[in-house]
Design brief:
about 10% strand, 24 helices, single chain, 5-stranded mixed β-sheet, disordered N terminus, alpha+beta
Length: about 600
């Protein structure tokens, strides 16, 4: 795990806010304007402002409910409320949506400030143009048409009307294409959290794909997810930019190695938000981000039991339990399936680091082979006979001994097959419904993609893993989707199969040969786009893509009705007039304070109380 310097930049800009940097690669000396004007402060050197522009995106990438909830993949367990995003009860007054919207414009304005103060041809200004475009991409995917502002706001002006979505997409594509062709940005990622032409190509691929779906494809039936493609040219353009972002990189690295905490900044990373622990100016447990504490059940008090602190939000949905087919190496690469037991100390607390959850990372394979096990979770396709044989083969590891956790083993199927052990390693077998299982502690796997083996033994301790924004296998699947929609089915299968093959799965000879193990309603007929979406679900699980993927491909209503535990009918995703919530609402604070926007500009779906 890398060590680094945490830096803080205080700028007399945008209401004098204090912003923090998370990376020594984007390091800036601690400063304050000290009464200087911003022209004098930044006129000569914009490096500190550029750091602030990069770091302002931290507030955007760490929005799990916005990116993942209200989809087919996750459920909140142990009595935790579903929440406004899973139930589609969010309104223009939602504080989460308001913060997202305002933070996006804050980040964009920092980028515009860099461009304003820097030489237009400077590398700093070019990096800021990338950041600005990234900010607008995130805004358009959540809100659709938004005010498009390319000048630095340093006056009280508040008249910014929404701009036509096609015009925004066209402007972004034009600006980024020029940036790719004519800038002095590095050709490929330097894995230090800076923009590169490879990152520009990745962003262009996503923007072109979004534009093709939003502008060049028309919805026929929301509940059925049917559509008509009116123009394929931007789909083809998206595929070409995805190929440039892939840059000839083959998927030869194992999926587990790709997400190993000892292999960050690897060849598949194109652009990441980077976090560093060393020299954090405060309690290190509150720095970084909290992604490792999400996506899983609850395993008890980490101080007393030595297991990872996870909060029961965004656990596997029943569809997710059956999503990975037998032989898919991404199952073990995505989920922690073996939780090692923790030694009980004289203090009454559990040993940490080389005992308990993080022993998986901090002990050698030889030592792990004899380490006591607290929980082992098997996928749905494991048989009872196979599990019993595995328990027998590793009998000593299922003896609790002087460890803090009672031993529990489960096959994550419907119903769940549960094995409960006494202290001596004897077990009883039972069957339990998924719903009842999800009311209990130790109710299944957690996501390990963001695990930080150096985490402190404190409830809620944050981690300092990089958050990968663009990476190569995502670009393979962006290319597959774009090729499919452009009518180039063979190329789409080639890209899709490259991802499958790396995962240990056989190639599909056609989209029609794909089969699923999860239950689907009688009205849900698999289509080619579903094959792409399932592959994205497996490859990109918990990375923050799912809601946008479903909205972009016009499957949001169809998938929620079919698979979202909290949605029974499409009307729950609509207002009283029957307008669906395809987009987030423009925040009420924006409508009241921006004279260029009125209630008439509100997105469809927010005209009244939902049914």
């Amino acid at each position: 795990m890398k060590k680094s310097i945490f830096s803080t930049v205080i700028v007399a800009l945008l209401s004098g806010m204090v912003l923090t940097s998370c990376s020594d690669f984007l390091d800036a000396e601690n400063k304050s304007a000290g009464g200087q004007t911003t022209d004098k402060y930044f006129g000569g050197d914009v490096s500190s402002l550029l750091v602030t522009a990069y770091n302002s995106f931290d507030a955007l990438v760490n929005q799990v409910p916005i990116y993942e909830q209200g989809t087919d993949l996750y459920i909140n367990t142990r009595g935790h409320a579903a929440g406004e995003f899973n139930e589609y009860t969010f309104t223009p007054a939602s504080s989460t949506i308001e913060n997202y919207y305002s933070n996006a414009y804050k980040a964009i304005n920092y980028a515009n400030a860099v461009i304003f103060y820097a030489n237009a041809s400077s590398k700093e200004a070019q990096e800021a143009r990338f950041l600005r475009a990234w900010g607008y991409y995130m805004l358009t995917q959540q809100f659709g048409s938004v005010p498009y502002i390319t000048s630095y706001i340093n006056t009280p002006e508040r008249n910014y009307p929404r701009k036509d979505l096609n015009e925004i997409y066209s402007a972004l594509i034009e600006d980024l294409t020029d940036l790719y062709n004519n800038s002095s940005l590095d050709a490929n990622s330097d894995h230090k959290g800076r923009a590169s032409k490879q990152a520009v190509a990745a962003l262009l691929a996503k923007i072109c794909l979004a534009a093709a779906w939003d502008i060049d494809t028309s919805l026929n039936n929301a509940e059925q997810g049917t559509y008509t493609v009116n123009d394929k040219s931007r789909f083809a353009l998206a595929a070409s930019w995805a190929e440039k972002a892939i840059n000839g990189i083959n998927l030869t690295m194992s999926f587990d190695d790709k997400w190993s905490p000892t292999n960050e900044a690897n060849a598949e990373e194109i652009f990441s938000i980077m976090y560093e622990r060393a020299n954090y100016p405060g309690d290190e447990t509150s720095g970084g981000h909290s992604r490792q504490n999400d996506f899983g059940g609850y395993y008890g008090n980490c101080v007393k039991l030595g297991l990872k602190n996870v909060g029961s939000d965004n656990q596997q949905s029943e569809k997710s339990m059956y999503l990975f087919e037998k032989g898919d190496k991404r199952y073990e690469g995505t989920y922690m399936t073996t939780l090692y037991n923790a030694e009980l100390l004289a203090s009454g607390d559990a040993a940490w680091g080389t005992s308990g959850y993080y022993a998986y990372y901090n002990l050698t394979a030889d030592k792990l082979a004899s380490q006591p096990i607290a929980n082992r979770f098997y996928p749905y396709y494991a048989t009872v006979e196979e599990v019993k044989a595995d328990i027998e083969a590793h009998k000593s590891q299922f003896v609790q001994g002087n460890c803090t956790n009672a031993v529990i083993v489960a096959i994550l199927s419907s119903p769940v097959i549960k094995f409960s052990f006494d202290k001596n390693g004897n077990y009883t077998q039972s069957s339990i419904s998924v719903a009842e299982y999800n009311t209990q502690v130790n109710n299944g796997v957690c996501v390990k993609k963001f695990d930080d083996p150096e985490s402190a033994q404190v409830a809620g301790s944050n981690d300092y893993r990089n958050l990968v924004v663009f990476h190569v296998s995502d670009m393979y699947l962006i290319a597959a989707e774009a090729y499919l929609m452009a009518g180039e089915t063979a190329q789409a299968l080639t890209k899709l199969n490259a991802v499958r093959n790396r995962a240990g799965l056989a190639s599909l000879s056609s989209f029609n040969t794909y089969n699923v193990e999860y239950n689907t309603p009688a009205s849900f007929t698999l289509r080619d786009i579903d094959v792409i979406l399932d592959e994205r679900a497996r490859e990109l699980y918990a990375e923050g893509h799912r809601w946008v993927d479903l909205r972009r491909t016009k499957q949001l209503i169809r998938y929620n009705v079919a698979f979202n535990t909290y949605i029974n009918t499409a009307s729950q995703m609509a207002d009283v007039s029957g307008n669906y919530k395809w987009l987030r609402p423009i925040p009420e604070n924006e409508i009241s304070s921006n004279t260029g926007i009125s209630n008439a500009d509100q997105n469809p779906g927010y005209g009244g109380v939902t049914e």
